[in-house]
Amino acid sequence: MDDRTANRVSLAESLDRMRTIERVWYREYMRWLFFGEIVGCCLVVGAIAVAANPPFLMIFDTKNLAFLVAALAAINTFIDPLARAEGYGRAVTELQVAMQPVDGETEAEAKKRLHAAEAQGLRDIRARSVARRPEPATAHRNN
User: Fold this and answer.
1) What domain count does the chain have?
2) With contact defined as beta carbons under 8 Å apart, do 88 and 29 qualify?
């Protein structure tokens, strides 16, 4: 929403819009958190099963199970669902704080604060949604 559009809507409409965004972001937070926890539990159980090689797993080839666990770990590392959940969680917190009324604040200041919180929330989400690249190695010289 640009500044011209923000000036035309009332504070109540802005708050309703922020509540809707908050619900969507919270739902995404819970989705990524659930996905991360389930995948993490599956990795732990799979790694224990591969390491212990219990007799009831003789119907499966341990090499295949090891491959599946390794592939799931690689996918989990690449997607990083817990970092994505953290981004959505921070964004939700930003909006919740911004939606609290401030004494002596004008309607324009309140709307500006709400839209700034939305923009910060989007930055938090995007920062944790892209795959992080390793920092380039720098050569250190001892002079």
Assistant:
1) 1
2) yes
